[in-house]
Predict the structure.
Amino acid sequence: MAWALYDFANSGYTTVVLTTVFSAYFVAQVAQGAPWATFALTCALSASYALAMVVLPPLGAWADQHAGKRHVLRVSTLACVALTTLLATIGPGDIFAGLVVLALSNLAYCIGETVIAAFLPDLARPQAFGRVSGWGWGVGYLGGMLTLGLGLGWVAYATALGWHPPQFVPGVMLITACIFLAAALPALFFLPEKKHPSRRPNGVGSSATYSAGGSVQPAVRSVPSVVACTLRSVLVQFPDFRWLLLCGAFYHAGISVVITLSAVYATQAMGFDMTQTMLLVFVVNITAAVGALVFGHVQDTFGHTRALGGTLVGWVLMIVLAVMATGPAMFWMAAALAGLCMGTSQSAGRAMVAALAPNGHAARFYALWSWAVRLAAIVGPLTYGAVTWLTEGNHRLALLVTGVFFLAALLTLRCVDFARGVRVRDTNEIGA
């Protein structure tokens, strides 16, 4: 329960800060609707994702070696809460400060999200990874809805008083920070962490490991060496995990656009105000929660790759509906489908990594997965932002280009042989 509650906690950050309120507030109010505002927002987030790509692999290796996942989780969570609180001080004209604080808060969020995922192999049996991951995402979307709902209530109250966004957005940021901290406390103090032995004959985590050919490899002790060894193993010994990383990078590039820029699209292309946008994202969270909770059972029953493939087809359909929408009805349909696909695809990726990661190396493999996801979070929103900049604000064309990422993921998924990946996981060793 503590593990799922952390998803409940941090979903409010992505729902309110990245997806709904602060992103739209920055473009419309802080940057005062400048043509470059969307591109500047995506650049700041891309910088935070790039930094996450640098720090996550060594952090994952350190956490594996020292059973330190919970320690890293505490530091990153407290940092994200503090920085979210600081976002409440950003007003019109505070462009540089807003971008810096947003980027740092997102970096802290990325670290926490990666580390909490690495607890999954310690908490669930392999045959239940899909269900447990789905439960976490489902509970997480409920947290996003609670945070967004309280924020929406505050916005409605403030609007009735005649307040403007610079006056009521700070309150939304404070609500988000408080819920994040309160819901994360059980995970920070009570989440169990298994300590894998540092020396074990003939196995992962031993002082001498064995390659697929049976030759003894010397012990690897330094964090940079562990990272390099893990990367070599993924590139050479774990081909299906390598294909999964590429597939995940493609479809998360599209998801990152939806998470980061859906509110911007709703306001700029569809003419929604902030209240309408918050209601829209609230509906997205409802369908995402349903998708995550139901999809876990589907994934465990019908197989990981088949289930993920169906979700990617849904993403392509969502893009078509959203681009074709000229009125609110079709756009609401596209938004509901986006939520359903978001819950299922994010849950699927986390469960698949858990199933392919060797025992005792979950944090490292999740760090590599997060590395691919963060690369996607750079490429996706930057591509969207660049298209809108070059076309003088054509958000529909930018969203259509986003659909290419989902098509590429669907093609890449065909290269993943999940049964073979499990066999490789059980026979190959990587350095500790």
User: Anything to note?
Assistant: The radius of gyration is 21 Å. The first strand starts at residue 209 and ends at 210. Residues 197-221 have pLDDT under 50 and may be disordered. DSSP finds 15 helices and two strands in the chain.
